Amino acid sequence: MIKSNEEIELLKIAGQIVGDTHNYLKQFIKPGITTKELDKLAYDYIISRDATPSFLNYEGYPASICTSVNEEVVHGIPSDRILQDGDIISIDIGACYKGYHGDSAWSYPVGNIDEEKKYLLEHTEKSLYEGLSVIKPGMKIGDIGYAIEQYALKHKLGVVKELVGHGVGKHLHESPDVPNYGKKNTGMTLRKGMVIAVEPMLNLGEPDIYILDDDWTIITADDKPSAHFEHTVVVTKDGYEILTKR
Ligand code: MF3
Ligand code: CO
């Protein structure tokens, strides 16, 4: 799980391409655009950077990005759905550069959103940074989950437990799993050179989810909105560095 300096250089490029793809897509996230149009824009942009979309054909996934709207938690498949004023959309992007992956999801408002959705976006983003803030060599995977879960509970948001963060490298999903819940000082010890994706999924309502008949889209059981924020980071000698910066 420890990456060499040469590998980290390539993971930095892959991560930067993912961050840049988010930056590029942001301007198009407005009422009236379809999620399929966003997928095409992302595909073309990633290819223009000499990379390939990590998700396309991953275990049969049929698109380049995941677009999860409102009560969709993750893995929403781009379609002819037209974004409406007041929606929130999580866009999850992966890119592979010279065999190494970057992975980052972000949730965005579409036009003007209500106060509840603003609260959800603000505090899910903050829960990601709470989780990241504990990362340094010697800390444990459980410390990350603990920080995220405690922050979410304090803000009365539901923590999705069925899906977890993960190692990132030559494969999009590697060991270790990085849950968004846990106990302090439990689980694997973090070491310099580990590369992990931390990705809290928080719900405005209950934590329960189910999967749609398309076998991909995950939805909240109570139909309340959900948000998802994810960065890929490398553990450094005294902390961490975000590889998927904007
Ligand atoms: N970004 C997702 C994750 O963090 C992966 C999307 S699943 C895929 O694990 F099949 F769409 F690729
Ligand atoms: Co991920």
Describe this structure in words.
The protein has 246 residues and is of the alpha+beta class. Helix content is 28%, strand content 26%. It is built from four helices and 15 strands. The strands form four sheets. The protein has a five-stranded antiparallel beta sheet. Strands 1, 2, 4 and 5 form a four-stranded antiparallel beta sheet that branches. Strands 3-12-11 form a three-stranded antiparallel beta sheet, with no helix packed on it. Strand 4 and strand 5 form a beta hairpin. Helix 1 crosses helix 2 and helix 3 packs antiparallel against helix 4. The model has no long low-confidence stretch (mean pLDDT 98). The protein binds 2-amino-4-trifluoromethylsulfanyl-butyric acid (MF3) and cobalt (II) ion (CO).
In short:
This protein has 246 residues and is α+β, with helices and mostly antiparallel strands.
Topology at a glance:
Blueprint: H1 5-26, H2 35-48, E1 52-53, E2 65-69, E3 72-74, E4 88-97, E5 100-109, H3 115-133, H4 141-154, E6 158-159, E7 165-167, E8 174-178, E9 195-198, E10 201-203, E11 209-211, E12 218-220, E13 226-228, E14 231-235, E15 240-242
Antiparallel strand pairs: 1-4, 2-4, 3-12, 4-5, 6-10, 7-8, 7-9, 9-14, 10-13, 11-12, 14-15
Helix pairs in contact: 1-2, 3-4
Keywords:
globular, five-stranded antiparallel β-sheet, binds cobalt (II) ion, single chain, 246 residues, alpha+beta, binds 2-amino-4-trifluoromethylsulfanyl-butyric acid, four-stranded antiparallel β-sheet
Q: Sheet bearing the most strands, described? A: 5 strands, antiparallel
Oligomer type: single chain
> What small molecules accompany the polymer chains?
2-amino-4-trifluoromethylsulfanyl-butyric acid, cobalt (II) ion
Strand content is 25-35%
| Annotation field: number of helices | 4
Q: What is the alpha-carbon Rg in Å?
A: 17 Å
Alpha-beta content class: alpha+beta
Give the termini distance in whole angstroms.
Answer: 25 Å
What helical percentage do the residues reach? Answer: 25-40%
Instruction: Quote the average pLDDT.
Output: 98
Return the string of H and E elements. Answer: HHEEEEEHHEEEEEEEEEE
Give me the count of strands. 15
Uncertain segments of ≥5 residues (pLDDT<50)? none
As laid out across the biggest beta sheet, the strand order is: 8-7-9-14-15
Shape: globular
